[in-house]
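pinned: reference chain
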Amino acid sequence: VQLQASGGGSVRAGGSLRLSCAATGNILPINTTGWYRQAPGKQRELVATITTGRVTDHADVVKGRFIISRNATENIDLQMNNLKPEDTALYYCNLYQAPWGSPPSNYWGQGTLVTVSS
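pinned: its structure tokens
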């Protein structure tokens, strides 16, 4: 499985960005995809996840501002509105799947940098 992320950039506080992640390869019908982020000097943290059943989960700090979505071709998007300087981080897309009878697998895309200035 390969994940290719795009869409990072620099914006002023209050602005918007849309991140996209294209997933290709041996993707199972049931999986969970998501976005995580890592700010300088901090641990990687969950931003949002979405299952193949379109069940979503957003971190409290982004609820009401970020929206995760996915389409049938396994493109995972993150619409980020009302960005704040504390949203500055490297953003990583993720795919988690658990093949029947095999250990679960966790895949990561390359990080895409989001910088929000005040």
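why pinned: The first strand starts at residue 2 and ends at 6. The chain has a mean pLDDT of 95.
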